[in-house]
Automatic annotation (TrEMBL):
It comes from the Eukaryota. This is Phosphoglycerate mutase family protein. One of its GO terms (molecular function) is phosphatase activity. One of its GO terms (cellular component) is cytoplasm. Belongs to the phosphoglycerate mutase family. PROSITE patterns: PG_MUTASE.
Amino acid sequence: MDARFLYPLESCKIIHLLRHGQALHNVEAEKDRNALLSPHLFDAPLTDHGHQQVENLRERVVSSGLLKRVELVVTSPLFRTMQTAVGVFGNEYKQSSMTSSPPILALEVARDRNGVRPPDMRRNVSEYQTLFPTIDFSQIESEEDNLWRPDVRESEEEILARGLEFMKWLWKRPEKEVAVVSHGIVLQHMLYVFANDCDLSIRHELCKRFANCEIRTVVIVDKGMASSTEN
């Protein structure tokens, strides 16, 4: 056993990062990348295979006890991520005798790369509230999507800044174990925030591309809090 770090539990958070299940635009993009510009793929939903991926992960999350441990689920406010969040962690379509579910909160900062591509544009909040009544949309400031721009694609630097903003927000939350349902490139950039604290081999494995419905668990540490505890 190569134990190189020791931190008090109160200075740590467990974060489960989950990419949405396979969505329609994922399938179409494999055939032709230009399909991502099609308005027919606006706010793309999960495919039948994506729904099956979600069902399979739900079974794992329940059987492993993870569903009981997660105190909060944060989701991107796009259709495919919310379908995934509710399907894996929610209780909308489950029996009332099932394990109680954690609250699910939609945040703009967790959404996909913005601009140009219609699959990454969201619907009005009021429409989502009807479709996903158990999701909390109180943190979404605008009814309409004011962040998506038809002619400008969000840069990777801007996504990284979002990742840092999100991690700062998350650290201030009282929950110690949180699930985040988002998009591949956004999850990678959330991990890049901490990449310099890892060995190169670990960094490569940790920050590689997410597969659809892949869940990856990390522990983040407030080293300042850990130092003050040690003193």
